[in-house]
């Protein structure tokens, strides 16, 4: 008989977390779809009831240590095991380095980076005892190649990349796998939740013109983004690759794959020029 598998997903109220919770549940994982605001749970609860899925919704805010411990302990008491954790909660930001206050950057790290560490630290003792477990960290192509005017966001995802790779060395001995997912532009609520640095709203900002061009350009990109279901499928494939060892990194979306390929085949400055040309339009580059 196949053993029961338990999954925990953070940020399941929308987008990638929502689709991943549903797909894991549809594929036999008893899934704890966690979110910071339970008022946003009605949609996943409706689908869970309609399709009779093994999903339970729990409150978990990745910036709140107690809420993480509460959710993890709740799962351990009920199930005695956690097999897969998907660290998905996160948000984007825009502005120039000069625009961001240190507090704005710290707050983004609280969610996108320290939030992941908190969850990892709370599940590792159990996973070590089990001698198995898979931790999936949702990074971004922005964690390999920063987009212009996303210095804070890119830094959180670069940090997550470093943490994840370093962590894999430590926990391999306990049978624990770390997986990084690097999506390109995905059609979710992400653009609506992007926080603009307060100083970047100043109409006299010396960066205003370029930033606005970047914002306009990326808005259009999100309209044609990869559906979040595609990211969920890659996560499912990665966590169920039974005989074959999962890769450390999975890039999702043709945009992300193309960017990485270009980066690999170009000198840094050459790549930066190409990126600027695409994001700001050519006139900026020719100066
Ligand atoms: N969309 C993209 O183009 C893209 C590309 C690469 C990587 N990613 C990454 O994918 C992940 C999911 O983003 P998405 O695209 O699905 O965007 P989304 O639709 O905005 O979903 C973000 C999720 O994170 C949750 N969240 C934010 N802060 C939280 C906190 N403190 N505690 C718990 N949950 C929190 C949100 O909850 P609320 O509903 O309460 O706000 C929401 O459920 C993020 O890590 C993002 O960086 C996205």
Question: What are its keywords?
Answer:
two-stranded parallel sheet; alpha/beta; 287 residues; 10 helices; seven-stranded parallel sheet; binds NADP nicotinamide-adenine-dinucleotide phosphate; globular; Rossmann fold
Structure write-up:
With 287 residues, the chain is of the alpha/beta class. It has one domain (5-286): Rossmann fold. Helix content is 50%, strand content 15%. The protein is built from 10 helices and 9 strands. It has helices at 15-26, 42-51, 65-79, 102-130, 151-171, 208-223, 228-239, 254-264, 268-280, 282-286; strands at 5-9, 29-35, 55-59, 84-87, 93-94, 133-138, 176-183, 195-196, 249-252. Strands 3-2-1-4-6-7-9 form a 7-stranded parallel beta sheet, with helices on both faces. Helix 2 (42-51) links the parallel strand 2 (29-35) and strand 3 (55-59). Helix 3 (65-79) packs parallel to helix 4. The protein is globular and about 55 Å long. The mean pLDDT is 95. The site of NADP nicotinamide-adenine-dinucleotide phosphate has 31 residues, from helix 1 and helix 4.
The biggest sheet, with number of strands, parallel, antiparallel or mixed sense and barrel status, is: 7 strands, parallel
SSE run = EHEHEHEEHEHEEHHEHHH
The end-to-end distance, rounded to whole angstroms, is 67 Å
CATH architecture: 3-Layer(aba) Sandwich
**Uncertain runs:** none
How many β-strands, per DSSP?
9
Distinct ligand kinds = NADP nicotinamide-adenine-dinucleotide phosphate
CATH superfamily: NAD(P)-binding Rossmann-like Domain
Q: In percent, how helical is the residue content?
A: 40-55%
What percentage of amino acids are in beta strands? 5-15%
Structural class: alpha/beta
Dominant shape: globular
Radius of gyration: 19 Å
CATH topology: Rossmann fold
Strand order of the largest sheet: 3-2-1-4-6-7-9
> What is the typical, i.e. mean, pLDDT?
95
* CATH level-1 class: Alpha Beta
